[in-house]
Design goal:
Structural class: mainly alpha
Helix content: over 70%
Order of helices and strands: HHHHHHHHHHHH
Distance between the termini: 65 Å
Low-confidence stretches: 1-5, 11-16, 18-23
Number of domains: 1
Length: 290
């Protein structure tokens, strides 16, 4: 009796299912683009949920951050409404004109210091552990960015309620309110990415805090949050057109109080700025994790 020749590879049956040999071994198959996108979205949502769960353990931040927008509406808004110092389009009350700007400001102040959290995670060793997982760096950044956006929506709800109590006539259309929430999320996502980009360059909490404080008020005052662009000096109008906060404020005014807005342009700028922010922050993440 003769034995089979050694070293002869097994024959794959032509009738076997695709990707399977006749001896039951499954060959690896490439992921489809849809599967890759679904997995990426799942990881972003998971990381975002992890970030939001931190609010359950400490809600103090939400309460303390509501004080500043309340003061802007109650003091600055009421005073400038009475003295009619700032012309508004269509003659709308200044408090109504100001409310969307303060909503955007509140979201900005939450997002612009978000990089401090990622530096804390670096110091605690959490970031290094996240970096060795299969999760893409862009998913890590996006999860944190959109968590900042959802935090800003919670904060923005306080501003909207306070504005309504002060007599500001805001839209009650659910679609417009959802659109305003989406604009706040996009704006906050961009500014949190900006903060994480600065964290990747500064590499320390003290430097990040100093840079954040240095750019926050210029971003706010060079936007159209407090006054229309047409009354700004020419050089400030140029800066305002380069400031993503101006596009966020313009979209919020159009959605919440119905002033003329350029929603298509506003959303395009915010989406492109957010994508660019995620790409740059993700590129700097390994430098921060070292």
């Amino acid at each position: 009796m003769t034995s089979a020749a050694p070293g002869v590879p097994p024959v794959v049956s032509a009738e076997a299912p695709a990707g399977r040999a006749d001896f039951g071994v499954v060959l690896p198959q490439a992921d489809t683009p849809l599967a890759v996108l679904r997995r990426l979205a799942s990881r972003i949502v998971t990381l975002c949920w992890v970030e939001l769960r931190k609010i359950r353990h400490d809600r103090t931040e939400l309460y303390t951050r509501a004080i500043q927008p309340a003061l802007w509406l109650l003091i600055y808004g009421e005073v400038f409404t009475k003295i009619h110092a700032i012309p508004t389009p269509g003659g709308i009350p200044y408090l109504a004109y100001l409310a969307p700007g303060i909503l955007a400001q509140s979201a900005l102040f939450i997002a612009i210091f978000y990089g401090i959290q990622i530096i804390w995670e670096r110091d605690a060793g959490v970031l290094t552990k996240l970096m060795v997982t299969p999760t893409p760096r862009s998913a890590l950044i996006s999860g944190k960015a959109f968590a900042a956006g959802l935090r800003s929506v919670v904060q923005g709800t306080v501003v909207v309620i306070l504005s309504a109590l002060l007599g500001v006539s805001l839209t009650a259309d659910p679609l417009r309110l959802i659109g305003a929430a989406a604009v706040v999320v996009l704006g906050s996502a961009f500014f949190s990415c900006l903060s994480m980009t600065i964290a990747g360059l500064a590499l320390s909490r003290d430097r990040l805090m100093g840079i954040g404080q240095a750019i926050t008020m210029p971003l706010f005052f060079s936007s159209s949050a407090l006054y229309p662009e047409k009354i700004m000096p020419g050089w400030l109008q140029v800066i305002s057109k380069c400031n993503p906060l101006s596009y966020e404020v313009d979209a919020l005014r159009g959605l919440l109080i119905g002033t003329p807005a350029h929603l298509g342009l506003d959303l395009t700028v915010l989406v492109c700025a957010t994508i660019a922010g995620v790409v740059v922050s993700a590129a700097l993440l390994p430098r921060l994790a070292r």
